[in-house]
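Duplicate of earlier report; Lipoprotein-releasing system transmembrane protein LolC input re-posted below.
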Amino acid sequence: MRFELTIARRYLLTKRENSFISVISLFSVLGVGLGVAALIVTMAVMSGFSTEFRDKLLGLSSHVIVGVAGSAVRNYPAQMEKVAAVEGVTAVTPIIYSEVMLAKQGTPKGVILRGIDLSTASGVLTVHKDMVDGRLEDLERADGAPGIVLGSELASRLGVSLGSTVNVLTPSLRGSAVGFTPKVKVLQVVGVFKTHMYEYDSSSAFVSLSAAQEMLGFKPDAAMYLDVRLKDPDAAPRVAERIVERLGGMPVYARTWIDMNGNIFAALKLEQLGLFVVLLMIVLVGSFSIITSLVLLVMEKTRDIAILMSMGATADSIRRIFLLQGSIIGAVGTALGLVLGICTALALKRFQFIKLPPDVYPMDTLPVLLNWHDIVLIAATAFGLCFLSTLYPASRAAKLKPVEALRHE
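Output:
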């Protein structure tokens, strides 16, 4: 193998009579390198976007939602202890969801009202990190009327700010002389949050768990669901099964974030796969250049190959010479692409000079996450394509007949 490697290096590094072949080899290296770099940067951005989007999405919900079919979760403190004891669970909080109408002046606006327990909610939800005005803790310290925290878009539509009051129309009906009418509750705005996700910022509001229980007719020890946060979000299906087993004896069900948002992340994965295939074409072009370079080299070195075979070199040795030469081109191109791609991704992550419109994306800057599994896959795929490109030229060189080759010299 040392003999073949020496010949392969000499063919690459020594000056050739036909410089056109050297130019093709250089462009082969550059093509492979640029393809690998583009793949690394694109996959890093896609991974960063998926992770950031998932964190934003789960910041307002949870990894697992536990409920009781046809009923509220009774005695939720005891049920929370059971769920918290399940392996993989890091935090549990009770929560009440309801669709209500909010109005200040003019047409009411339909929103999703969430009643949260302030003592445990921060372990599951991240809304306290998204506050742009006021504090989440003030939900239970509002002066006079109970407190409410609104999404930024919702507050803007209603034309309210800190200290303003809003009317909440709940679906719980009460009897009157004119029939059944919805209950109306006056709440004071104590905070505004902004997640940069328009759907949530325009249709979400938070109140304290006790205020939600009072407005919606829940008993003091009852909640609609238990929101659960896990150590590993990807393990949600397995942990959900353990939670249902742990709460046996009740008609309990558990829904994971994958069940509720699986179509969104499936679309992101499909888009990532599509970009991977498209950008892989750049590497493929570089590998085709390797085929061209080696075929031309075989034609140029026909006399040298014939002399080597006359001196005792076997067909396998000749084949290995050109396999090694193409592999060196592929390895250099792949290494160049790795360095360029990783450095570019790290620069994007560190300096964040690409800004995104916050009204379109749930983040302000381009998210970048280097996944070493993706880097290894890209490097292996690129080098594999380059190696496959050497098979035909190497096989053609090994089939040369010394007598026929020297006859035409």
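The first helix runs from residue 2 to 13.

Merging into the original ticket.
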